[in-house]
Amino acid sequence: MAWITGSGAPRVGRVIAEEFALAGYRIVLHANRSLEDAESFQRELASKGTEAMIVHGAVQDESFARRAVDLILTQFGRLDVCVNAAAVWDWKRLEEVTAEDLKHQFEVNTLGSFLCSQASGLAMVPNPNGGSIILIGDWAVARPYPKFSSYFVGKGAIDSMTRSLAVELALRNPSIRVNAILPGPVMLDPSISTEAAERIRDQSLLKRHGTPQDVARAARFLAEQPFITGVCLPVDGGRTIYSGEGLDAVAHPTFATGQHKK
Q: Which of the listed CATH numbers 3.90.550.10, 3.40.30.10, 3.40.50.720, 3.40.50.2300 matches domain 2-257?
């Protein structure tokens, strides 16, 4: 049984849900403003033989996660995996960022992830097989780019949240694992030009765009590995470690020989 938040709309969360469905999991979809999309996807899953239900609400609502987990346990009797894919993102120049912008990013991306992970993890404690919780961060918190300051504040907390929850829940049931995925660009905004998309591709060490399927496969891998916890896994084509050409020999020939002028 896998619960994927943010899986109603046709975004990364839905692809993650599809991956778990193909692996034979029963699925819990989640939608806040995309309920019609979630209902359509539920029917699609049913047509393929996958049992699925929908929970509806705002992840930052403190009562939602507990209510959702109660509904899941009532219908399916257990919860094995929770993937926190619900998220918001927006860009603004630093001069334009308001307190409300910061609160909105934090409430959905940070608080919502914590509340759903908390409720799911505590529900897994009585399960002899424990369970797996997966959070979604962002590779670029290590190398932030401009105009996303409020977004990075919220996503930057995912790393420490992952490690903290991994400790807390394993002390209650050592079979509960908590990990995070740090995706690179995997679903480019339609407003991004072809030229900008090519630059993004070229900034990847593997010289290709990522896909939602890359994230989905990583989520399933982490969910099914019993000896991995507290890990934040970049799924970014090497962007985290790659700084471009750097001090290449062509631009800086003296560095190639080690001969530096005084």
A: 3.40.50.720
Q: Which residues is 183 bridged to in the sheet?
A: 235
Q: Are 238 and 204 in contact (CB under 8 A)?
A: yes
Other beta carbons within 10 angstroms of residue 26's beta carbon come to 19
User: In a 3-state reduction of DSSP, which class is residue 238?
Assistant: coil
Classify each residue of 36-51 as buried b or exposed e, where b means 16 or more C-beta atoms within 10 Å of its C-beta: ebbeebbeebeeeebe
Token pair of 174 as six digits: 């050592």
pLDDT digits (tens, 9 = 90+) for 174-224: 999 999 999 988 877 777 778 877 887 888 899 988 999 999 999 999 999
In whole angstroms, what is the distance from residue 132 CA to residue 79 CA? Answer: 9
